[in-house]
Automatic annotation (TrEMBL):
GO terms for molecular function: carbohydrate binding. This is Protein PHLOEM PROTEIN 2-LIKE A9-like.
Length: 183
């Protein structure tokens, strides 16, 4: 087909929006996140393309989706070390659809790795205007790549709610983080 250009409705993270802080912590700003349906302004409001990619005041705002999938990855990890992963978020005043809806934070090392996860309910957070971390309790994983992907030390993690099938909105994602934990 001549002249047809395929454009994905999904936002692909910009590597320039990832900040590594002294090999201890990595911050992934909204522009660095892979967001399913993120390019469709019916579902998400992303920071302006003219804003600095590492703008700490920027947030990705979930307007409405039934399929929540926000992911990212980093190679800034060491074998044998433990890391805390999560998202710094807040809820908009008109947040909806979170009643009885669990959100999962999942992480793995390497493409062939096995996911570890924590689930949390955002139901009681809808009236909270302050930022909070998800999960509230630490999700700590130890980097042990599976034998089938020897040398693949990429940490993949994300926030998911793809099972409920109900529409939800009002989640503000300020950044994701990976932080080395002292063993």
């Amino acid at each position: 087909m001549v002249g047809f250009v395929y454009s994905s409705p999904h936002h692909k993270g910009d590597q320039k929006a990832i900040e590594k802080i002294k090999n201890k912590k990595t911050i992934i700003y909204p522009k660095g996140l892979d967001i399913t349906w993120g390019k469709d302004d019916r579902y998400w409001r992303l920071p302006s393309r003219y804003r600095n990619t590492k703008d700490p005041s920027a947030a990705a705002e979930l307007l409405q989706v039934s399929w929540l999938e926000v992911t990212c990855s980093t190679n800034n990890i060491e074998a044998g070390k433990s890391y805390r992963v999560g998202f710094n978020v807040s809820m908009a005043p008109a947040a909806f659809g979170w009643k009885g809806c669990n959100v999962y934070i999942m992480a793995k090392i390497g493409k062939a790795g096995k996911f570890v996860y924590k689930k949390m309910s955002l139901e009681n957070k809808c009236s909270v205007p302050n930022k909070f971390s998800m999960p509230e309790e630490d999700l700590i994983i130890t980097v042990k790549p599976p034998p089938s992907s020897l040398g693949d030390y990429c940490l993949y993690f994300g926030m998911y709610e793809v099972w409920n099938g109900r529409w939800k909105g009002g989640l503000m994602i300020h950044h994701a983080f990976v932080e080395k934990v002292n063993n």
